Each structure stands twice: as C-alpha cells, then as structure tokens.
Structure prediction request, 169 residues.
Amino acid sequence: MSQLSIPSFDSPLMLRDSRGRYRQASADQILEAARQVIDKKMQRGDEFTSPTAVKDYLRAKLAGFEHEVFAVLFLDTRHRLIDYAEMFRGTIDSAEVHPREVVKEALRLNAAAVVISHNHPSGNPEPSATDKAMTSQLRQALALVDVRTLDHIIIAGSTTTSFAERGLI
Prediction:
C-alpha cells in the first residue's frame, strides 16, 4: 500500500512504493490520496457545520477530474452525512443527470436533504443555463418525496459557486 510522505516543506510530495523506495508523486496520485483522506475525515454521521465545510469537502472530492462528475451528498434531518455518491460521469463539458435515479437513491438512504454538486473541468465556475434548469427539475422531483435540496455547488478547480449563496435555489 502506498503512503504519502512530506520530507520537508520545500520538496515535492513523495510516494513510497511497495519496495520502500520514494518517488515523486504525480498530481493524480496526490488527488487520489486527498480523496482518501477526506473520506476518513468526514464519515457517515458527521455533521456539516457550515457552507465552507461542505465546499471544502466537495472541492477535495471533485477537483482535478478531466470529465464532469455529478455527485450528491445525502444528509439526515440534522445535516449529518449519510452518504456521498458520484452518481453520473460525463464528458469534458457535460454529464447527463437522471432525476429519477437521484430520487431513488435518496429514498433508499432515507435522506431528508441533499446537496448536489458537479465539477467544471474547464475551470469556469459559472452555472450554465442547463445547470440551472437541471437544478430546478431535480429540486422539484426531490420535493415530491419531501427531500430538501439545500444547495448545488459547482467545483471549478479551487473555485466554487453556490446556488444557495447566489439565490438560485
């Protein structure tokens, strides 16, 4: 099993291979390690205490993909994490989202609320007209089964856009 090591602050991140030798870690290896760390840091039952915590979590999970990924945080009534699911994968500039599948998963997990999210590999955090229409459609479908849509967050590298903060949700 590989482990990341930081020998000093001014050197690159190193990865130890199965023979115990250190090699410079690639960007993809660093991002994968960050995803594993965030999974350990935020587990089922942990409460999201602020919008910043949600954005940080989603940024760690979705930044760096070269294709669009649509993900959902399924939450209980106290906004504690039930599950994080990457539900749909797309191309470099779109991902097809099926509201029926999101609703089915929310019901299966007995979620009271969701935060939906996707990344923009282009680096542009601005929501498209398609993003806005899909959010509205998904929000309406979830509302029919009493699941609140708290936010839709777009991740574009280190930048985020929150529909809730912009009054779009």
In short: The chain is about 30% helix and 25% strand.
